[in-house]
Design brief:
- Strand 12 and strand 13 form a beta hairpin.
- The two termini are 19 Å apart.
- The chain is globular and about 60 Å long.
- It is of the alpha+beta class and 357 residues long.
- Helix 2 crosses helix 3 and helix 5 packs across helix 7.
- The protein has two domains: 165 residues, D-amino Acid Aminotransferase, Chain A, domain 1; 170 residues, D-amino Acid Aminotransferase, Chain A, domain 2.
- Strands 1, 2, 3, 4, 5, 6, 7, 8 and 18 form a nine-stranded mixed beta sheet that branches.
- Bound molecules: pyridoxal-5'-phosphate (PLP).
- The site of pyridoxal-5'-phosphate (PLP) has 14 residues, from helix 5 and strand 15.
- The site of pyridoxal-5'-phosphate has 14 residues, from helix 5 and strand 15.
Length: 357
């Protein structure tokens, strides 16, 4: 399949664009068009098309509604100062979508074609990319199972969809350290399960704890492993890094955590900055010890939405660990500045990560 196979139907009634780009928020406004493609067993993926943004028509027995065969991705398009539209390592998102597909018995996509389709959709919707500082166009590709069947088995039909949403700056007032609470009751994922995929089910599993965190006045939770309840996994929907005695450490990818694009990029950049970076098991006790002897120097989350999220305080049971004096650590700040510089095209892209649309 190639670009010429994409049938484009333009809307006759474009929506008004949001007037105030400082009030975009996250994920509530969608552009005029979306990309769709069908899968049918025997035929494969077919009928790629761009159509006006609209409701889907699904049979109430559609399998996604019953057994959760749904996977997604999240990335952004950035409007550079020179007017160019940039994506950040989008190949990794489509590769990860296929890794999620494989785990959930969903047929894999042609990654090259999926990226070309995304670029075609963005070109059509480019007037929706906000230009104010820190704003971007959030991209949500996803796949759902559509067979009308209430028996448990993989679906024979699927829909691949891409929708776009202009989003506001994550930090309208600059980088902001957050308070994180270490979750000791609920777990997000276990090895052998879906933890390494962006499966909808993982987020359903995390809601209860996220609500608890909010009630207690925290913005996110730090997940521990599901078996020993002692190894650090990730923070909310971000990967997590700690600076301990001058070295950086992040949990190794062992099947229960998400292999973040930002995580991978942070590892390369931190090494380039000259730090030792270890991907390994980190226990909550190691963090407590490091905090007590004064070597827990910084902690931060990484993910597409926030880029870098400095952790100002970590709470484990009745132990509170304020970090970096509740301020933004220097490594967090440098990583944030470097990544956002590449994403918006204002800084040096030494790894060639930015992709022009
Ligand atoms: C998406 C996600 C991340 C971050 O991945 P990025 O590719 O860096 O955006 C981390 N953890 C979870 C659970 C996620 O869903």
């Amino acid at each position: 399949m190639n670009l010429n196979d994409i049938k484009i139907t333009k809307t006759a009634s474009p929506k008004a664009k949001p007037a105030d780009q400082t009030q975009l928020g996250f994920g509530r406004i969608f552009t005029d068009h979306m990309f769709l493609m069908d899968y049918t067993k025997g035929t494969g993926w077919h009928d790629p098309r761009i159509v006006p943004y609209q409701n889907l028509s699904l049979d109430p027995a559609a399998m996604v509604l019953h057994y959760g065969q749904a996977v997604f991705e999240g990335l952004k398009a950035y409007r550079a100062k020179d007017g160019e539209i940039l994506l950040f390592r989008p190949q990794m998102n489509f590769a990860r979508l296929n890794a999620s597909d494989e785990r959930l018995c969903i047929p894999e996509l042609d990654e090259t074609f999926a990226l070309e389709a995304l670029k075609a959709l963005i070109r059509l919707e480019q007037s929706w990319i906000p230009t104010a500082e820190g704003t971007s166009l959030y991209i949500r590709p996803f796949v759902i199972a559509t067979d009308p069947y209430v028996g448990v088995r993989p679906s024979n039909t699927y829909l691949f969809i891409i929708i776009l949403s202009p989003v506001g700056a994550y930090y309208p007032e600059g980088l902001n350290p957050v308070k994180i609470f270490v979750e000791t009751d609920y777990v997000r994922a276990v090895r052998g399960g879906l933890g390494f995929t962006k499966a909808a089910a993982n987020y359903a599993a995390s809601l209860k704890s996220q609500e608890k965190a909010k009630e207690l006045g925290f913005s996110q939770v730090l997940w521990l492993d599901g078996i020993h309840r002692k190894y650090i996994e990730e923070v909310g929907t971000m990967n997590v890094f700690f600076k301990i005695a001058g070295k950086l450490a992040t949990p190794a990818l062992q099947g229960s955590i998400l292999p973040g694009v930002t995580r991978d990029s942070a590892i390369s950049l931190l090494k380039k900055f000259g730090y030792a970076v270890e991907e390994r098991q980190i226990t909550i006790d190691e963090l407590l010890d490091a905090y007590r002897d004064g070597t827990l120097e910084e902690a931060f989350g990484t993910g597409t939405a926030a880029v870098v999220c400095p952790i100002g305080e970590l709470i484990y049971g009745d132990v509170s660990m304020p970090l970096s004096g509740g301020k933004i650590g220097p490594v967090s700040q440098k990583l944030y500045d470097t990544l956002t510089g590449i994403q918006w095209g204002t800084g040096e892209d030494s790894f060639g990560w930015a992709v022009r649309v």
